[in-house]
Amino acid sequence: MVIRKSEREIEIMRKAGRIVADALVMTREIAKEGVTTEDLNTRLEEYVLQKGGIPVFKGYRGYPKSICASINEEIVHGIPNQRKLRNGDILSVDIGVEYNKYVGDAAITIPIGEISEEAESLLRVCEEALNKAIEKTCVNNKLSEVSRSIQEYVEGKGMSVIRDYTGHGIGRQMHEDPQIPNFVSKELLRADEVLLQGMALAIEPMICVGNYDTEVLKNKWTVVTKDRKLSAHFEHTVVVTENGAEVLTI
To answer: Which of 58, 70, 74, 172 has its Cβ near the most Cβ atoms within 10 Å?
Structure first.
């Protein structure tokens, strides 16, 4: 069941989104060559708590950390550890924050030092795919049009959309209805949602330069491209308004 949010609820989600957005600004400042993903996790967790938020990932279905930090071929759910970032890496950081019982969720993928032209193109395409999806997020449009905008743009650039993981509704829970695939399937078209004012969505293209097949590492969390080619992930929490999508995590 899709739960539409009241203006009071949206205002709280704006505050959660502000903490997320500022934490991602910090990520760009902190994540440099030689820094470990555990260092990054510690700093961002401290910041979220200082601002009155709760790192919603920590403990979620047993997940052990406050952020997801995924490097290179890691798509999502990378667990922070003592691995040091290296020149040429690309790092995806995903952060979810609960504030006053409502959640904001966003992700970015950033370069570490000098990266390859292929990696630069991947990051650019993924972020632009998110922007195109947000443009399609408006009252009376269909959810499939949001998904279609991502798929057509990414595949038009010769890259692949990850199919095993999706965006989602968001509010009092991190994951609410509807699911938001980054491609159009028969299943999506059969259960297509019409976007209505007050719907809150976490839109998150996950794309790669190779094949979209995935696998999960032995830690039972980290998802990687099966062919071990580079992957990127961008995400915003948005709410549908009469004037289009309002981005809450910017």
So the answer is: 70
108 falls within a domain: yes
Q: What is the tally of structural domains in the chain? A: 1
Gap between the Cα atoms of 161 and 210, Å rounded: 9
Full-prediction pTM beyond 0.90? yes
Q: What's the pLDDT tens digit per position in 107-120?
A: 999 999 999 999 99
What residues make up the domain containing 59? 7-247
Say if 237 falls within a structural domain. yes
Confidence of residue 187 (pLDDT cuts 50, 70, 90): confident
Q: What share of the chain is helix, strand, coil (3-state, %, to 5)?
A: 30, 30, 40
Q: Are 183 and 161 in contact (CB under 8 A)?
A: yes
* C-alpha–C-alpha distance, residues 167 and 156, integer Å: 21
Give per-residue pLDDT as tens, 131-158.
999 999 999 999 999 999 999 999 999 9
In-domain check, residue 2: no
Phi, psi of 189, deg, nearest 5? -65, -35
C-alpha 111/C-alpha 137 separation (Å) is 28
Q: Looking at the domain assignment, is residue 1 inside a domain? A: no
Write down how long the chain is. 250
